[in-house]
Amino acid sequence: MEFDAELLSSIPDVGKEGASNILAEIGNNMDQFPNEQHLAKWAGMAPGSNEPARNKKVEELHIGTNT
Q1: What's the average model confidence in pLDDT over 21-41?
Q2: How far is residue 38's CA from residue 4's CA, in Å, rounded to a whole number?
């Protein structure tokens, strides 16, 4: 199955630029994804990751000399 920019831009709030960005990242051949859940997981949008966005851990960056 292939997608084109016109079909993607018909999604509310996606628009032409958003459709172009989606196609640039994913490509237009959806055969590489067995199903929509696989695509959502690849895109990092799958539910059930057990780590809500508001609780993501951020590693501290230590700048300075090593002692």
Answers
A1: 87
A2: 20
